[in-house]
């Protein structure tokens, strides 16, 4: 009996120290990683480039039919670019991109938020959140975001947005009413996206108050906490120093 107890104890310790790895999320025969937007291959061997901080370029030859993970997507001037690690690739007839469905991309987050990253759409930076009646649908095999809002007289559903126009993120809820000092000159943005519209310049030493939401390393803030409206602007969390 004593020997059996020792064996069971050893097995218990092994399970605690070496827990079973949770099942990976897979799509199209490959594991999907957090923040991954899709996978890409090329119709022939081509050379791609990355720009270094000193202005020089490094190149890499990629082989046809080899798959590569993509993370960021940029759309502007009628063009689409995919970020493949440090390399940036423009969409052409040499590139075959397969988008990971938004439902899979969203499964990594507790409080899912979508941000429109298509600069050609006229709605760059627009926010959509799952807890405000946003839904994902499949139209002709394409993943689309369908946004609905409560008008007081029922739900009004706006147009559909392609999944490749959406950056999928998590909303983190911070304590509201916390006072912050802006530690360096910055720009208060309309949306939590670096390239979104600037609402106003924010001088170093300005005082702001948290509203609650933190998205994409930005915090939703107000200069006047007593202001009787739901509007806020977004500042990078890294330049905000809490004042207690």
Helix content: under 10%
Query: How large is the count of helical segments?
Result: 2
Radius of gyration: 23 Å
Mean pLDDT: 83
Percentage beta strand: over 45%
Unreliable spans? 1-22
Cα distance, first to last residue? 60 Å
Helix-strand category: mainly beta
- Which sheet architecture does the biggest sheet show? 8 strands, antiparallel
Say how many strands there are: 23
Q: What labels describe this entry?
A:
244 residues, mainly beta
Word description of this protein:
- With 244 residues, the chain is mainly beta.
- It is built from 2 helices and 23 strands.
- It has helices at 2-17, 102-106, and strands at residues 26-27, 30-31, 38-42, 46-51, 57-62, 68-70, 73-76, 79-84, 87-90, 95-99, 112-116, 127-129, 134-139, 142-150, 155-162, 166-173, 179-182, 186-189, 198-202, 207-215, 218-222, 233-236, 240-243.
- Strands 11, 12, 16, 17, 20, 21, 22 and 23 form an 8-stranded antiparallel sheet that branches.
- The model is unreliable at 1-22 (pLDDT under 50).
């Amino acid at each position: 009996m004593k020997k059996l107890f020792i064996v069971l104890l050893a097995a218990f310790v092994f399970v605690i120290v070496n827990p079973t790895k949770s099942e990976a999320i897979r799509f199209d025969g490959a594991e999907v990683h957090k923040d991954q937007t899709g996978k890409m291959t090329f119709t022939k061997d081509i050379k791609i480039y990355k720009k270094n901080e000193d202005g020089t370029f490094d190149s890499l030859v990629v082989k046809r039919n080899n798959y590569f993970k993509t993370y960021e997507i940029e759309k502007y001037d009628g063009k689409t670019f995919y970020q493949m690690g440090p390399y940036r690739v423009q969409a052409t007839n040499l590139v075959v991109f397969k988008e990971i469905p938004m439902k899979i991309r969203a499964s990594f987050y507790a409080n899912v938020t979508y941000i429109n990253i298509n600069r050609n759409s006229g709605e760059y930076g627009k926010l959509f959140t799952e807890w405000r009646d946003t839904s994902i649908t499949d139209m002709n095999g394409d993943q689309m975001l369908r946004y609905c809002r409560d008008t007081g007289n029922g739900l009004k559903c706006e147009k559909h947005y392609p999944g490749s126009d959406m950056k999928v993120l998590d909303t983190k809820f911070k304590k509201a009413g916390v006072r912050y000092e802006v530690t360096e000159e910055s720009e208060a943005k309309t949306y939590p996206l670096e390239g979104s519209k600037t609402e106003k310049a924010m001088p170093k030493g300005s005082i702001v108050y948290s509203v609650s939401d933190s998205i994409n390393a930005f915090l939703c803030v107000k200069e006047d906490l007593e202001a009787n409206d739901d509007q806020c602007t977004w500042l990078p969390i890294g330049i905000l120093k809490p004042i207690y």
